[in-house]
Amino acid sequence: MFDIGMPELLVIGVVALIVVGPKDLPMLFQQVGKFVGKAKGMAREFSSAMNQAADSSGVRDVTDTLKSTTDTFSKVSNPVKATADSARDALKSVTDLGIDPTSNTGKLAAERAEDARKIRENSAKKAQERLDAEAKAAEDAAAEAKSRAEAARQSSETSSEAPEEKA
């Protein structure tokens, strides 16, 4: 948050020494330490309250779903390229076996490799469609969780404002 390095801390220390004096400086540092400790405690308490609110509104479930969808999407990131590579490998394996690609056997092997490529391509397209549907469902769930969290936040704000109005 603050970008304070050693030179800045040294300047602050020297100014504090001059302004406060060497006699009261340890008490000042003790008070600053207590203040920083209280601030950290308040930050921890706030963070845990936000985590509890996230848990109760289902944001963590949506986050986990999004992470798993992202992982799945990254595994199938370019199915068409993978399919083309596998077809090229199949054709190479036909020539590696010593079969002439222009002979009847070679043509049959090339046709089978092309059929396998088409099947893989269709499978990859269907997998991509599934991933898109999962991503859409995850987006919808995230939007719903966000609206629930907003509603929970608004209800907590109204419930915290109510005692203040009575006082």
UniProtKB/TrEMBL annotation:
GO terms for biological process: protein transport by the Tat complex. One of its GO terms (molecular function) is protein transmembrane transporter activity. Gene3D superfamilies: 1.20.5.3310. Part of the twin-arginine translocation (Tat) system that transports large folded proteins containing a characteristic twin-arginine motif in their signal peptide across membranes. Together with TatC, TatB is part of a receptor directly interacting with Tat signal peptides. TatB may form an oligomeric binding site that transiently accommodates folded Tat precursor proteins before their translocation. Belongs to the TatB family. Its main location: membrane. The keyword Calcium does not apply. Residues 92-167 are annotated as: Disordered. This is Sec-independent protein translocase protein TatB. It is found in: Cell membrane; Membrane.
